[in-house]
Design a protein that fits this description.
Layout (H helix, E strand, L loop, with lengths): L21 E5 L1 H11 L1 H17 L10 E4 L4 E8 L3 E9 L13 E7 L5 E6 L1 H19 L6 E5 L5 H12 L3 E5 L3 H12 L4 E4 L3 H5 L4 E4 L6 E5 L9 E4 L8 E3 L1 H6 L1 E4 L2 H7 L12 E2 H5 L13 E4 L4 H15 L6 E4 L10 H8 L2
Parallel strand pairs: 1-6, 7-8, 7-10, 8-9, 10-12, 11-13, 12-16, 14-15, 14-16
Antiparallel strand pairs: 1-17, 2-3, 3-4, 4-5, 5-6
Helix pairs in contact: 2-3, 2-4, 2-10, 3-4, 3-10
Pfam family, one: OCD_Mu_crystall
Organism: Albimonas donghaensis
Protein name: Ornithine cyclodeaminase
């Protein structure tokens, strides 16, 4: 079912928008309808497939670190990329103090456009979609790097990303239990309540140390915009895979430096990760492996059962591009698209003023 909002009244003398004026739009309501209609875990698996396909053709993309505007309150970022056919970008913010004022910490929207003529092909909410693509990326990389047969994950941080991560790792990696710790007991209770409805065993833990006990995969996702030590070196034993997704800007980290020195480190795009990720703590030439190279068989993934692997994930524009492609392919067929009169399209491309003038009556 399409959930549409009627357009505002148009002057009787104004020309009707042409077909070229309309841009497909996926609202939050329609994004939720799309995901629930497909099924959350199916959507996560499909997104992981799209992300993997685009990572496998990594050299085809224009790549740049995201453009960030930092303030004392947070950050606003643009994340652009393009291949030969399509251009995509995401607008996203990160404001940790928002929660206290009743706002989301992260919000986002995105655009997919045609390289051939520059016209937008899709405008969509990306707050929900970013949570999905982040979780899908984490689990895709977990499938590559986590120890064989891993069934337990520790989740440090029970914010908005928590349940998406847990369910993605179940859908894609086969975990059966998630051990959750958050400094706010209400956040942990929220996560346990939500995951119980999805049949995943979730255990509340009183500390990060308790949470990592017996876990083969450890995910960190905390919100404070500062250098923090969520995991200390003594908490991480041989063979563990760490999925570090909380550090995403300069001056914000979650892991003690000694963990990095023991781990095989895997990243999305080094020029961005060295600025924003856990590896900002290390020398600029510290060795890292790019995930796209592992997917293409050009670099080694997990070396052996005892190796500690770390996915130092900060999020990269190609993941958003993949998510935009998925929504573009899926939403229209599912009836989850509205049309926005967004592009001026005069009868004579040179007469934009005339179109405006005639609309006045």
């Amino acid at each position: 079912m399409t959930h549409s909002v009627p357009p505002p009244p148009r002057p009787a003398t104004a020309p009707a928008p042409s077909e070229l004026a309309w841009v497909p739009f996926v609202s939050v309501q329609n994004m939720m309808a799309l995901i629930n209609g497909i099924g959350l875990e199916t959507a996560l698996r499909e997104l992981a497939d799209y992300i993997e396909a685009d990572f496998r053709r990594w050299p085809d993309f224009d790549k740049t670190p995201r453009v960030a505007s930092h303030s004392r309150d947070g950050v606003i970022e643009l994340m652009p990329t393009a291949d030969a056919e399509s251009y995509g970008f995401k607008y996203v913010n990160g404001h940790p103090a928002n929660l206290k004022a009743g706002f989301q910490t992260v919000t986002a929207f995105g655009v997919l456009a045609s390289v051939a003529n520059g016209y937008p092909l899709l405008l969509t909410e990306m707050t929900v979609l970013t949570a999905l693509r982040t979780a899908a990326t984490s689990a895709l990389v977990g499938r590559l790097l986590a120890p064989k047969g891993a069934r337990t994950m520790a989740m440090i941080g029970a914010g908005a990303q928590c349940e998406f991560q847990a369910l993605a790792f179940r859908a894609i990696c086969g975990i059966e239990t998630v051990r959750i710790h958050d400094i706010d007991p209400a956040a942990t209770a929220k996560a346990l309540r939500n995951l119980a409805r999805h049949g995943l065993e979730a255990v509340a833990c009183g500390s990060a140390q308790d949470a990592v006990e017996g876990a083969e995969i450890v995910t960190t996702c905390t919100a404070d915009k500062q250098n923090a030590t969520i995991l200390t070196d003594n908490m991480i034993g041989a063979g563990v895979h760490i999925n570090a997704i909380g550090g995403d800007c300069p001056g914000k980290t979650e892991l003690h430096r000694d963990i990095l020195l023991r781990a095989g480190i895997f990243v999305e795009y080094p020029p961005q990760t060295r600025i924003e990720g856990e590896i900002q703590q290390l020398a600029p030439d510290h060795e890292v492996t790019e995930i796209w190279q592992v997917l293409r068989g050009e670099a080694e993934g997990r070396r052996d059962a005892a190796q500690i692997t770390l996915f130092d994930s900060v999020g990269f524009a190609i993941e958003d591009f993949s998510a935009l492609r998925w929504v573009h392919d899926r939403a229209r067929a599912a009836g989850c698209v509205e049309r926005l009169d967004m592009l001026a399209d005069p009868d004579d491309p040179r007469d934009l003023f005339g179109m405006l003038d005639r609309a006045a009556g």
